[in-house]
Queue: 4 jobs
Job 1
Amino acid sequence: MAGVQPAKENSSGLSSLAGRSNLMLRVVSSLVLAPVAIAAAYFGGIAFIAFWAIAGIAVLWEWDTLVCTHDRNTVLATGAVTLVCAALLLAIDRPGIATTLIVLGLFAVAALGSKVHAAWCVAGLVYAAAIVIAPVLLRSEPNLGFAAILFLFVIV
């Protein structure tokens, strides 16, 4: 029994180190990304839309990597193209068409995903699309858009 206990401590120690490393990565990432996000919000326009499109694609990639195992590449490609096209439509001030395109992308992802994981793959695109569309629409308000985005950043 004494031989088993050190293995548990060692395993716990490795887990603790991995947790610290993950925390450090998150802190460093936030220190780098926070000024970039604030600058993109300040300038608005294409820079802001591109920032959130990249963030949405990153979220979609992570989600699909976890959920859509065997059909990840086709689902991810379809979702990424949908998000990029929606971002381009937002850039030319066509949020209704962007939303319609995302709905069509949801149907495509549902058709391409495996029957077991299709709903989860669709949920990933919904989540990523919200990350792209919501901040862009919030920032587009001419008088308080930037202040609203800063308030959102502080709350989150």
Job 2
Amino acid sequence: MASIIIVEDDLLISKQLKAIVESFGHQVLQTLSNGDQAIDIFGKVHADLFLLDINIEGTHSGIEVARCINRSIQKPFIFITSYSDKETIDVAKQVMPSGYVIKPFDEDDIYTAVEIALFTFGQKMTSVRTKSELEQKHDVLLTPREYQTLLHLSEGLTNAQIAAIEYVSINTVKTHLRSLYGKFDVRDRLKLVHTVMQNL
């Protein structure tokens, strides 16, 4: 059973999502109506998955909530939205959602998206060493940002994608990479990923 938070400002859709998710045997911890509420609970409520509307009430959009999730708690999230235009999808891709469901949806749409997101995230977490394991194995000390950059590199993300997810400049990502090259005694990102991922 997974713990899920729904962020949706349409009350009827929020209730529908809650009923569907609970019918799968999962627990809905909270249903929130705006992005501000979602960001406020990070670190206070521990959820396994977020269902996010993109165009939502409050000062923070669903995209901004997703960026905060990536920066602070690194949990999977699925966008539930009415928007399927190229511009919105291009923006959404930058924050790497675990799923993208278009309204109106049915129970099968939500079931498939939720189960794949949870499974994929679980597989990812078991295939990457923890920060302390990497530090011990390679006799290095990593900052939280450097470790996060390593995780993104292991997923094959570009500097631009990492910058978008972490909400930093590309130059900042390059600075982290230069530091990692020095700590792992490598000269390029390919060798860095190989060094980090070997013998997992």
Job 3
Amino acid sequence: MPAEIQKRYTAVITEYSRRFGKLLDGWWFDGGFAGMDHKLWLRAARTGNPRRAVTFNDGSFCLGSSKVVDDLETVVRDFKAVGGGVTFNVGIFQEGGLGPDTVSQLAELATRLR
């Protein structure tokens, strides 16, 4: 996302946050993009209420990372250790298939968890 678009988008979030003040308890940002300025988004989201809960889809921190499987392996092992389940939100092409990078990473994760 170009810097100018990010700047404009966070300006809208800042305005909503300012107008709703203490009436707005939190923001959930789903997704992300390379070059995302998380601090900019956090400042915008907490305008008008510095205690506001703000969360980002954890995938937004992993974009462009070659170590995604290392981040995921720990999470899956921790959840499984206490009987929990884990789901993944992976992109699916219009034709119904998964991207080769996604398949590769999921296969590597499955191998590591055996």
Job 4
Amino acid sequence: MNQVTDAFLMGKWRLDPSDLKSLEEFGETGLEFKPDGSLVFTWFVGKGRRQIAFLTYRLDGQWLITNQPSSPREDRVIAEIASKNVLVLDRDGVRSFYVRSD
């Protein structure tokens, strides 16, 4: 797998519908990376209801580091490119696969 770059991240991603393990654990989620270092994290909590968190992000080598300005605390996951349109996020060996949605 290849190391993620800012250019690769730009745009919208959603949890891969074929990643059944992650869907079961996290539900339907989406990520939108913006050029200004902001990240919109969306997850669905019921019939048409969604929650949204506004985060910041940066890359440090293999690490994707996020933070929520309203409640500061860094969170780190390993980010990798699995293919042209697949982003893999690895948290302590648990891998989630995201596909482009824009």
